[in-house]
Please model this.
Amino acid sequence: MISNERSSSGYSQFGNSGPKPSSNEDTLKTERIQIERKTFLFALKENPRGRFLRITEDVSGRRDTIIIPAPGLSEFKKIVDEMVRVSEESPEKPA
Model:
């Protein structure tokens, strides 16, 4: 059945369910680094679903974010460490 009716909140029953409710997030630690024209914010947070790392990249006001659940941080670190190792061992190609 197709319906064009809107719920009392003004949003379709099948589309956007409206604004996300604010979540109870506790910030455990934050760090900010500037690399060239980019700022990265690392925030270790916790909510009722568990701990996670939120990494936000800010470039001239444009923000992109990824979230890594805490159980995956060790694996994430292994991959980043490997990328750093390869980057340091491999000479950069001339521009």
About this structure: Strands lie at 26-35, 38-47, 50-59, 62-69.
